[in-house]
Specification:
There is one protein chain. The chain is an alpha/beta fold and about 250 residues long. The protein is built from eleven helices and eight strands. Strands 7-6-5-4-3-2-1-8 form an eight-stranded parallel β-sheet. Helix 5 packs parallel to helix 7. Bound molecules: 3-(propylsulfonyl)propanoic acid. 3-(propylsulfonyl)propanoic acid binds next to strand 8.
Amino acid sequence: MARKFFVGGNWKCNGTTEEVKKIVTTLNEAEVPSEDVVEVVVSPPFVFLPFVKSLLRPDFHVAAQNCWVRKGGAFTGEVSAEMLVNLGIPWVILGHSERRALLNESNEFVGDKVAYALSQGLKVIACIGETLEQRESGSTMAVVAAQTKAIAEKVTNWDNVVLAYEPVWAIGTGKVATPAQAQEVHCELRKWVHDNVGAEVAAKVRIIYGGSVNGANCKELAGQPDVDGFLVGGASLKPEFVDIIKSAT
Ligand SMILES: CCCS(=O)(=O)CCC(=O)O
């Protein structure tokens, strides 16, 4: 079955209103494949969420870079799932490696957050991925499977879940996984979903790649059978993000 291509832009920036407006203007003026071909979601810093949502073209959508999932309110300084729903923000990125590493978000905690965000009506980009040490020790699939298992144990409906494989050693480093490396993990991850969740979910779930994707490497990566799109960092702040959207196959 054809899975709709998915491109997310993770704006990890400390930009100004003017800079954000300029990025949105570039996106609004871009000629890209229709929403039936590629689903585009951009994720500004929290403070710009309503602003970007108010300016962004209707065929692109907005995601928060995280949310707190304590019922009834936000953890100090965080945005709760309920607040995102109230603001009409449809997507949220959860389990990013920076949060797993720097804020000690465990696999189980990420699984709980994914399930709770879904229960509140949000769509989730769930991040998984191994560190360079884990890759070099040959434990990539064990790590990625454990992270996915912790999500699968809490999620019953996968319709609003996109899995983002992010080799931590490729994030912001300029070291992108080769198409073969990305395809290998995506293929193994889809097999894990097939064997542990079910064939239908495995066929439908989008598995996207994140880690130093840019306008030059996106086409070859997009050509891999189990790469269903991207979660893009630095390049999503540049005009080449339009090229990445157009790499939809
Ligand atoms: C899967 C998350 C990847 S991300 O959003 O951190 C972008 C990283 C990069 O482009 O280097």
